[in-house]
Amino acid sequence: MKLRFSRAMLVARAVAVAAVLAVAGACVPGTSGPSQPAQNDSGPLTLEFWTINLKKSFGDYVQGLVDKYQQQHPNVTITWVDVPGNDVGPKLLSAIASRQAPDVVNLANADIDQFVPSLTDLGRYLPPDVPQKYQPNLIDPLRRDGKLVALPWYNAGAPISLINTDLVRQAGLDPAAPPKTFDEALDWGAKIHAAVPGAYGMNGLPDENILRLEGIDMLTPDRKHAAFNTPDAVAVLEKWRHGMESGAISPGSTVKDDRQYPQTLANQQVAFGANAIPTSLTSLQKNAPDVFAKIGVAPGAVGKTGKYLLPDQQTMVVPAGSRHPETASDFAAFVTNAENQTEFCKLTPIYPSHSDALKNPFFSQSGGTTPMDRARAEIATELPKLELSTLGTGKDRQLSDRFREHIRAFMSGDKTAAQALTDAEKEWNDLLAQ
Questions:
Q1: Does domain 7-155+311-359 bear CATH number 3.40.190.10?
Q2: 419 touches 229 (CB < 8 A)
C-alpha cells in the first residue's frame, strides 16, 4: 500500500497541479464558492468514494463499511471507486478540473499540499469533539491556515528494533537490553561485528531523517533555504562513517534502493534493525521463517529528540467540489472512527490514528507470545511519539533523493562530510528557489 513516485512523475504532477488549481479556483472555500452548488443533504443523495489499491485485498472490508453506512443512512447511496496508487493524483486533478470531483477521497498525506486549495474545511461540518478524538500528532499536521483539510486514517506504525537473538548472544550482548539510541546502536553493531566477523550490526545511512531525529533543522523557518550545513551535522555524519568502518553498519547500506540491501536480517548478515519499519517483520515471517523464530522485538532506537518519524499516513479528504460536503465529512469520520480503524488493523499490519482505537485490547494488551504480537504492543505504545516526516515544501521527495545521493557518496569515501553537506545545501537551495 506504500506509494512510490518517480522524479519525472512528480515534476509532471507539480506542473499539472499548478494549471489545474488555477482553473479550479472556484473550488476553493472562501473564494467564489464550490464548483458545484451544495445541495440539501436531507433528501436522497449519492456520494462518490475513492480508495487507493484496496479492492483486491480488502474489498469485503471496504464494501462492509459502505453497506453499514448506507443502512444507517437510508437516504445515502455510496458509489465506491478503487483507484490504482499511481493514478489517484492525476485522476483527482482531472476530476477537479472538469468539476466532477468525488465526494470523499483516500489521499496520502504527502500528496495533500498540492490539493489544499481545492479541499473542504472539515471543521465546518464535523462536531467539534470529533477531530479531538484523533491522535494530536497525526491530525494537527492536517491543518492548513486554521482549516482541517483531512482526517487521518491508517499508517505503517512506529519504527521498531528487530533483533537476531542468536547473533547478539554470540557477541556476548543481552537481546533483552537492546540499544535505545542510535549511538548505542552503533556501539552494539561494532561489538557484534568484532565477535561475529560474518555479520554486521545493521543497515542504514545518516540521511535527512536521522539528522532530524538528532535535532538538526533541515530547513530555515520559512522553508526557503537549507539549514543543515552545521558542525553538529558534520559530527553526526562522521559518527556514522566510523560506524561503517567498524562494521556497525553494513557496507551494502550505500545501495540506492534499500529493498536491495545485500546484507539483511533474512540472510543473517546483519544482526539487528534499530529503526525498522513494522512490515519488515511480516516479510521475515513470510520469506525467512527460521530467522523469524529468532527475532526479538523492542522499541526503535531514537536520537536526541526522542521522537520517531513517520514517512506518510493515509487520510480522508473531501474535495470542495462535493455537492454534499456535510454528509461527505460525516462519512469520512465514519470510515476513520475507532471501531472501523481497529477492524481494518486486524486484517493487515497497519496502525490507527484514532486515540480510542489504541484502547482496544488488540493494541493495549500484548497477550500473545509471537514477534508479531510483541511488535503490535510496542508500536501501539510508541505511536504518540510519531511525527510526520514531511517538510511541507512540495518538493520533499526530490530534496530527499538529492540529499541521500550526497550521503551515499560520503559513506562510500568519495566525499568528506563537510563537502557532502555543502553540495547538498546548494542543490536544496536551487530546488527551493524554483
A1: yes
A2: no
Between CA 396 and CA 386 the distance in angstroms is 18
SS3 at position 315: strand
CA distance 221 to 340: 38
Exposure of 291 in the CB half-sphere (CA atoms within 13 A):
22
Q: What 8-state DSSP symbol labels residue 238?
A: H
Give all strands of the β-sheet with 151-155 in edge-to-edge order.
76-83, 45-52, 104-108, 313-317, 151-155, 351-352
**pLDDT-flagged residues of the chain (< 70):** 1-40, 366-368
413 SS3 class? coil
Give the contacts of 210 (CB within 8 A, at least 6 positions apart): 182, 204, 236, 240, 303
**Amino acid found at 97:** A
- How far is 276 from 203, CA to CA, in rounded Å? 10
Identify the helix (H) or strand (E) that includes residue 188. Answer: helix 182-195
Could you give the C-alpha distances from 359 to 134, 151, 237, 339, 373, in angstroms and in order? Answer: 12, 19, 40, 11, 16
Q: Rounded to 10 degrees, what is the CA torsion of 221, 226, 232, 235?
A: 150
Q: What is the pLDDT of residues 113-172, one digit of tens each?
A: 889 999 999 999 999 999 999 999 999 999 999 999 999 999 999 999 999 999 999 999
> Which run of H or of E encompasses 273?
strand 272-276
Return the SS3 of 302: strand
Which class is 160-309+389-433 in CATH?
A: alpha beta
- Please check whether the two domains, 7-155+311-359 and 160-309+389-433, share a CATH topology: yes
The answer to whether 319 and 103 are in contact (CB under 8 A) is yes
Listing DSSP states for 126-171 in one string gives S-TTTGGGB-HHHHGGGEETTEE--EEEEE----EEEEEHHHHHHT
Please name the amino acid found at residue 84: P
Residue 392 has which C-alpha cell?
Answer: 511541507
* Domain ranges across the chain: 7-155+311-359, 160-309+389-433
